Amino acid sequence: MKPPNAARRSQRSHRAILEAAYELALDRGPAKVTIDAIAARAGVGKQTIYRWWPSKGALLLDVLIDAVGAVSEMPDTGDVVADLTTQMTAVTDLFRSDFARFYTGLIAEAQADDAVARGLAEQLADRAEGPRRQRLEKAQRDGQIRADVDIAAAVEALYAPLYYRMLLRTAPLSVDHVHAVIDATIKGLRPNPV
Amino acid sequence: MKPPNAARRSQRSHRAILEAAYELALDRGPAKVTIDAIAARAGVGKQTIYRWWPSKGALLLDVLIDAVGAVSEMPDTGDVVADLTTQMTAVTDLFRSDFARFYTGLIAEAQADDAVARGLAEQLADRAEGPRRQRLEKAQRDGQIRADVDIAAAVEALYAPLYYRMLLRTAPLSVDHVHAVIDATIKGLRPNPV
Amino acid sequence: MKPPNAARRSQRSHRAILEAAYELALDRGPAKVTIDAIAARAGVGKQTIYRWWPSKGALLLDVLIDAVGAVSEMPDTGDVVADLTTQMTAVTDLFRSDFARFYTGLIAEAQADDAVARGLAEQLADRAEGPRRQRLEKAQRDGQIRADVDIAAAVEALYAPLYYRMLLRTAPLSVDHVHAVIDATIKGLRPNPV
Amino acid sequence: MKPPNAARRSQRSHRAILEAAYELALDRGPAKVTIDAIAARAGVGKQTIYRWWPSKGALLLDVLIDAVGAVSEMPDTGDVVADLTTQMTAVTDLFRSDFARFYTGLIAEAQADDAVARGLAEQLADRAEGPRRQRLEKAQRDGQIRADVDIAAAVEALYAPLYYRMLLRTAPLSVDHVHAVIDATIKGLRPNPV
DNA sequence: GCTTAAACGAGACGGTACGTCCGGTCTTGTC
DNA sequence: GACAAGACCGGACGTACCGTCTCGTTTAAGC
């Protein structure tokens, strides 16, 4: 009795809800989007939203997946440093766009809603971290990355600073910042052996 | 005429509010704390809260400052790697404690409230990043850290992964994680020369 | 779009609200009845009250209409003085009962709320003054009342003193008072001719 | 310890409060006057109001006494019907002026505040009904009013309709209304004996 | 004329109720 | 049976006033 029959789901309503939620989230921030407003803009009954999503966060997560798709493809020119620079710059641009508001809002939602947190972590691991790790693992096999380095830690040392600045706003994101992080991480912090 | 006379502020109420907010935030999460509940638990009129804080986030920020105090002191044994290990392990422990729930909730609040975002960034820059940078700068002067490295980027490469895991929960925080991040960052990702 | 769809109104809630309001008004006086208390006692959301009534006074007016029904029937024994005595005594009894508190409270409300004033005046004109005038007009046709007397003024001369004492409390309402007013008004104040 | 020393009372504040209350009551209705607003407009601390008056109603009652003074003097030309016509017309004019709003508001206040009700009844009995009864008693002695009529009832039959229309607004006050009431009451309702 | 206790202005305080907003559920037709 | 519409209960919001309670500051009485 709980799960409704997905086969009878109205595709028209489904799409209208995702689009309404996305538009509202962009223009007032996800925290200020209400289910009422989404339903009204989508021309949909509130029950239809509650029928298919357990919470506002879950809906926003679907909106994210729907809107973003496969954003994080890693280039592979053979030069891992160049590729990281390219891709981290792209991420920085994304994190400075209107989309950031949506993304940070969703992360905020995840702090109070475990289902959203799990979905978001999974999404992040699969779509974002996965390709990054694979690229670094390839570079490791190519001898461009030290063989005994922990790949997960390496990805985080490179990318976490971008999320950190987006979320905590201690300093602005910039291309210079990308270069500085790559320089520090690739070359390492200890003095160059002579 | 707008700002109330701070000299007449009731210290008793002020403390009771901070304590009530802290206790409530710990036991149900900051997002579910209501001004009504804080006022009731503190034995205070709601107006007294609204008189002195512009938003729930601003109050929680004060609670953070009040509750945490000087948490982030950097040790200085002369060995920067040992000191980073010590301190990052302490931060990891903090980020795995009940306090994390409070902290992430406040960061969530900051995503929808610019004043909180600013206050939090300032707090973070002054109390957390400051000592970390100073320790690395000293290590730089001591020759333990490469002279041309960007200190801000270095601090982020080391610490941002801790915030990243606390907030995004892609993987658990652990002592091993701390070691992996330090190894990757200190030694760097490129193959050891020689 | 503003007025809600009356067809979908919950009869259960409607009745519960009227009854809760009536009980609360009787036991603490209409001025001290709050919308919060009515909603709580009726087991109803406050919005449901605000959806259907524009003000507390409007609700109390509906309560009056609901509670009183057809109180003011005029008897007709053929003897207009006897009938007036009977009916004014009944009104006096009503104005000395607990109901008076409710009624005076509603009249008080009307002094600050024009909609209530209009509703109350209409109610009074239709349900109370109407039958009284009709009885006097019949008596006029029967030759028991002087043909050239202004019926509206006559009704007021007889009944206004009852409202006056209920509201201003310069002296108590009583059967003797009824007799005195009827005597003064029916026989008139000027000396008996002859 | 309770009653403050009246000798030290500030006349300046006393007057300012009465005036502020009167002005505010006229321009927004007594029900919407707040102690806060009176204090602010009078340039007076709220405590000063609470020190000298037990309730808003009590203050408004003093305002009434202060503002109205001896309004209800009865003329005495020797012709009681002419005198009643003159004076009831004056009362009607007063009840149609801005003052009516103030007066009805105070009567409304009295319905929920016994002290105000008592004060108002006393005021009414002394200042308004007293002179009216005395005039009718004189007329009785002069043979213009039937000897066995109840004077209190007679005064009410004449004047209560004016209060009734002011408070209940079933019909407008007017000179014609005054004439009709006087005609009905003086001549009486029963047919003229032939 | 000096002292001192009161009454005063200002306004912060603990509370209560306001009228609004929204979350999540339930109900009533329609398709 | 999923849907659009929207009424419903509940509960938090931020505001307005209540009546009480400090705070200094006049101010007028009595020494």
Short description:
The structure is a homotetramer of 194-residue chains. Chain A is an all-alpha fold.
Give an overview in words.
Four copies of one chain form a homotetramer. The first copy, chain A, has 194 residues and is an all-alpha fold. Chain A has two domains: 52 residues, Homeodomain-like (Arc Repressor Mutant, subunit A), CATH 1.10.10; 117 residues, Orthogonal Bundle (Tetracycline Repressor, domain 2). Chain A has nine helices and no strands. In chain A, α1 crosses α4, α5 runs antiparallel to α9 and α8 packs antiparallel against α9. Chain A is elongated and about 65 Å long. The N and C termini of chain A lie far apart (71 Å). In chain A, 40% of the residues are buried. The model of chain A has no long low-confidence stretch (mean pLDDT 91). Chain A binds a DNA duplex (31 and 31 nucleotides) through α2 and α3.
What's the overall average pLDDT of chain A, rounded? 91
> What is the CATH homologous superfamily assignment of the largest domain in chain A?
Tetracycline Repressor, domain 2
CATH architecture of the largest domain in chain A: Orthogonal Bundle
Q: Count interface residues per chain for the largest interface.
A: A-B, 57 and 58 residues
Number of strands of chain A: 0
Secondary-structure class of chain A: mainly alpha
Global geometry of chain A: elongated
Main pleated sheet of chain A: none
* Oligomeric status: homotetramer
Unreliable stretches covering 5 or more consecutive residues of chain A: none
